[in-house]
């Protein structure tokens, strides 16, 4: 156990002196591995070779660039504006309505984008000016955007779920399915937090204009077309006129075609249902679902006339860079995991739990507390990649569901992203909205952090919320 | 930064960027076409799986010098607020030197691996594509990443904000 802890410590020191986290993990991984094998460098180098090569040449991993590309396309297509407008039409007239519309919009955006930072950044541009115009207090608007943004990684698709799935060999489709219900719970709890804030300070979130129902539904252009095509395809499958697989592919083309005509929230919902439904129903693998999603997102961008050669190139090259950056971290983390796995740490943790007769839920709760504390200061992805090799064997040993643990991991990452002093979403907001003091951003997000911690407790106590949907999967 | 070096940098950056972009676009369409062809026409694309795999490899490693060039590696920046500016700059140069060293070493390891794979004459299962050139490409790209870091020791870029991964 000592070796692994020293390894962790050295890795933290290397990262602290500004060595890229990927390299810090990789260096400690290689050196630690050699040490554990009595300084047999040849073995350590051979392992490093294999890790680099195998991570690079791995079909399943192509899901990563494709989902990132999908997110980059929808961000550039300006989908966030449409989502916010629709959500606003329905709830904007309530107290704190725009803040709740932001959260609902973020949830919708999260359904086609797997990045929390992208979600927060795009809503900072779209929702903040609207809230400002209506006289919202800055702390409420920035808080709701930062917190809403984290829904991007809980509601599938989700980069972090993909990476967790790859690391632990957990089914990515099931992880995605598991994120849906907690995502809805999250949105509800965040809205309750908005209500709490506006109850304390009604001037923070004044009411918007109340729209007649006709106008509210007018924002859902083409909903009958989408619903009609969906129902027709489903009926055709049920009646045996068509195979489910064919129906899904035809459905994909129908969604793309209709999205060219009806620009708005309905096309977003349709793409989500298509991609996630396809993966859930076993028609698409995660990789194929990601490709369908990326093509669909590209269609969205074309339909909105924003896809010039320049934006196409920018979306692609940015996705490529993000992919390389993530893969380097992944390779470093896998090397580190190799080292941790041959230390006595995983076994000793198991023994520790056995000796004290700890209840599995207690163990999970303790792990979550550690994560929430670490998350305030550490970069979240590295935190997960570093600690999963240590904790995951324990979870499996205790007979707990890896999918449930995956959801919990995503939730702690979400909390980490919005907990001061080092929360990436807070940093993104301070950068994009320089007129708002950082102190205000920090203060505004606190009620949402509390709501998120409450959600974490609920999800730990009631695993069924996470495991119910995936348990229905084939 | 001197004129000559900056144009060279830009050229290499643009070439790799275009290559990576093109590969990603093709990757997307091949995977999509594979689904459509398989279900709708009962005609799976032969070897789409292998092509995807190799393209992903090229994508990742062609992107690596770009990431280093754009300074997009995830780093912790607590120390930035503790050190005086000159010390911080010196530290950054040192870190770039270390990154370069690690990259060159890694490139060498992968080059050796490529040699082994070439000696066995490994090919993919269906399309019989020779694998070793791709592994040599990996090694070259990692080495190029090292070169980028060497450059940065001399032409240290201005500090930029932290990079998000999630």
Folded structure, characterized:
The complex is a heterodimer of chains A (474) and B (166). In chain A, 79% of the residues lie in helices and 0% in strands. Chain A has 24 helices and no strands. The longest helix of chain A has 34 residues, at 309-342. The radius of gyration of chain A is 23 Å and the shape is globular. The mean pLDDT of chain A is 92. Chain B contains four helices and no strands. Chain B is elongated. The chains are: A mainly alpha (474), B mainly alpha (166). Chains A and B meet through helix 2, helix 3, helix 4, helix 14 and helix 16 of A and helix 1, helix 2, helix 3 and helix 4 of B.
Shape of chain B: elongated
Query: Based on CA inertia axes, which overall geometry of chain A fits?
Result: globular
- Percent of residues in helices of chain A comes to over 70%
- Low-pLDDT residue spans of chain A: none
> Structural class of chain B, please?
mainly alpha
User: Mean of the pLDDT scores of chain A?
Assistant: 92
State the order of secondary-structure elements of chain B, H for helix, E for strand. HHHH
Largest sheet geometry of chain B: none
Q: Structural class of the helix and strand makeup of chain A?
A: mainly alpha
Beta-strand portion of chain A reads under 5%
SS summary, helix count of chain B: 4
Short recap of the structure:
The complex is a heterodimer of chains A (474) and B (166). Chain A has 474 residues and is mainly α.
Write the layout of secondary structure elements.
The complex is a heterodimer of chains A (474) and B (166).
Chain A: H1 2-16, H2 21-36, H3 41-56, H4 63-77, H5 79-91, H6 97-110, H7 116-133, H8 138-149, H9 151-154, H10 159-168, H11 172-200, H12 213-218, H13 223-238, H14 244-261, H15 265-280, H16 286-303, H17 309-342, H18 345-355, H19 360-377, H20 380-397, H21 402-418, H22 424-432, H23 438-461, H24 464-471
Helix pairs in contact in A: 1-2, 2-3, 2-17, 3-17, 4-16, 4-17, 5-6, 6-7, 6-8, 6-11, 7-8, 7-22, 8-11, 8-23, 10-20, 10-21, 11-21, 11-23, 11-24, 13-14, 14-15, 14-16, 15-16, 17-20, 18-20, 19-20, 19-21, 19-23, 20-21, 21-23, 22-23
Chain B: H1 3-40, H2 48-69, H3 85-120, H4 132-154
């Amino acid at each position: 156990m000592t070796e692994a802890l020293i390894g962790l410590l050295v890795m933290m020191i290397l990262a602290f002196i500004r060595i890229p986290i990927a390299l810090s993990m990789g260096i400690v991984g290689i050196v630690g591995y050699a040490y554990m094998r009595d300084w047999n460098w040849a073995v350590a180098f051979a392992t490093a070779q294999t890790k680099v090569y195998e991570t690079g040449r791995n079909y399943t991993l192509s899901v990563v660039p494709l989902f990132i590309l999908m997110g980059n396309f929808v961000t550039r297509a300006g989908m966030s504006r449409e989502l916010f407008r629709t959500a606003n039409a329905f709830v904007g007239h309530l107290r704190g309505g725009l803040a709740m519309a932001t959260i609902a919009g973020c949830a919708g955006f999260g359904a086609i984008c797997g990045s929390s930072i992208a979600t927060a950044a795009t809503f900072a541009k779209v929702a903040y000016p609207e809230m400002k115009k209506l006289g919202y207090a800055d702390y409420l608007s920035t808080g709701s955007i930062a917190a809403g943004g984290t829904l991007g990684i809980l509601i599938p698709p989700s980069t972090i779920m993909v990476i967790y799935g790859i690391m632990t060999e957990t089914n990515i489709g099931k992880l995605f399915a598991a994120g849906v219900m907690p995502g809805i719970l999250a949105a509800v709890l965040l809205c309750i937090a908005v209500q709490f804030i506006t109850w304390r300070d009604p001037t923070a979130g004044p009411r918007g204009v109340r729209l007649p129902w006709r106008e509210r539904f007018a924002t859902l252009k083409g909903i009958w077309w989408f619903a009609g095509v969906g129902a027709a395809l489903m009926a055709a499958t049920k009646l045996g006129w068509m195979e489910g697989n064919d129906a899904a592919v035809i459905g994909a083309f129908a969604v793309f075609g209709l999205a060219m005509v009806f620009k708005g929230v309905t096309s977003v919902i349709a793409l989500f249902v298509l991609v996630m439904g396809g993966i859930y129903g076993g028609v698409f693998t995660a990789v194929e679902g990601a490709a369908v999603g990326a093509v669909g997102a590209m269609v969205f961008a074309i339909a909105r006339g924003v896809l010039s050669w320049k934006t196409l190139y920018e979306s692609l090259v940015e996705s490529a860079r993000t992919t390389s950056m993530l893969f380097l971290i992944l390779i470093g983390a896998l090397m580190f995991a190799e080292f941790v796995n041959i230390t006595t740490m995983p076994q000793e943790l198991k023994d520790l739990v056995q000796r004290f007769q700890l209840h599995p839920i207690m163990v999970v709760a303790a792990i979550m507390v550690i994560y929430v504390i670490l998350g305030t200061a550490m970069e979240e992805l590295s935190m997960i990649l570093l600690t999963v090799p240590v904790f995951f064997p324990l979870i499996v040993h205790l007979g707990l569901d890896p999918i449930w643990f995956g959801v919990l991991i995503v939730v702690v990452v979400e909390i980490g992203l919005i907990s001061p002093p080092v929360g990436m979403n807070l940093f993104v907001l301070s950068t994009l909205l320089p007129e708002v003091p950082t102190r205000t951003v920090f203060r505004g997000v606190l009620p949402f952090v509390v709501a998120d911690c409450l959600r974490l407790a609920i999800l730990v106590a009631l695993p069924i919320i996470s495991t119910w949907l995936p348990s229905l999967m084939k | 930064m001197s004129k000559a070096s900056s144009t060279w940098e830009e050229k290499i950056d643009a070439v790799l960027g275009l290559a990576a972009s093109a590969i990603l676009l093709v990757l997307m369409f091949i995977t999509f076409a594979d689904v459509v062809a398989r279900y709708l026409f009962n005609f799976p694309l032969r070897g789409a799986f292998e092509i995807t795999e190799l393209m992903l490899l090229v994508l990742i490693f062609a992107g690596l010098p770009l990431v280093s060039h754009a300074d997009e590696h995830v780093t912790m920046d607590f120390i930035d607020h503790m050190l005086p500016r000159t010390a911080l700059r010196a530290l950054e140069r040192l870190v770039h030197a270390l990154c370069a060293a690690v990259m060159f070493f890694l490139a060498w390891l992968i080059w050796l691996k490529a040699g082994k794979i070439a000696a066995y004459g490994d090919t993919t299962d269906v399309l019989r594509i020779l694998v070793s050139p791709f592994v040599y490409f990996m090694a070259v790209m990692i080495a190029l990443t090292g070169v980028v870091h060497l450059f940065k020791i001399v032409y240290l870029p201005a500090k930029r904000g932290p990079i998000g991964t999630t």
